[in-house]
Design goal:
- It is a single chain.
- The chain is mainly beta and 108 residues long.
- The chain has no helices and 12 strands.
- The strands form 2 sheets. Strands 1, 4, 5, 9, 10, 11 and 12 form a 7-stranded mixed beta sheet that branches.
């Protein structure tokens, strides 16, 4: 049975780089996001067109996966990753971006 939960401490901070807003968060375990698998650590995410670009803070290595961007009626207070367990891997369903009305949907 899969349970929905929040992965690690997620809403570390938000940074603005040019016109693209970048959100920083921490993954506490091996996590699958869309078509990519990320190891534990700190990441930033930004949306470029129809893709989410995850960058590992420590190594600056980037991972790109398709994403469906949804605009909601309510503004999210914090950045939150919603995921379920598949064995020992966390599988991200969506990410709510703190300070915005944007949700990134990976359950495509």
């Amino acid at each position: 049975m899969k349970k929905l939960f929040t992965v690690g401490i997620l809403a570390v901070c938000s940074l603005t780089i040019g016109n693209a807003k970048t959100y920083e968060f921490t993954l506490s375990g091996v996590t699958k996001v869309g078509s990519v698998q990320l190891k534990p650590g700190q990441y930033t995410v930004k949306v470029t067109g129809t893709n989410a670009v995850f960058t590992e803070v420590e190594t600056a290595k980037s991972y790109t996966t398709p994403v469906k961007v949804e605009n909601t009626d309510k503004k999210f207070d914090t950045t939150q990753v919603n995921a379920s367990k598949d064995g020992s891997t966390d599988v991200v369903k969506d990410i709510e971006l703190g300070g915005s009305k944007t949700k990134l949907d990976f359950g495509m």
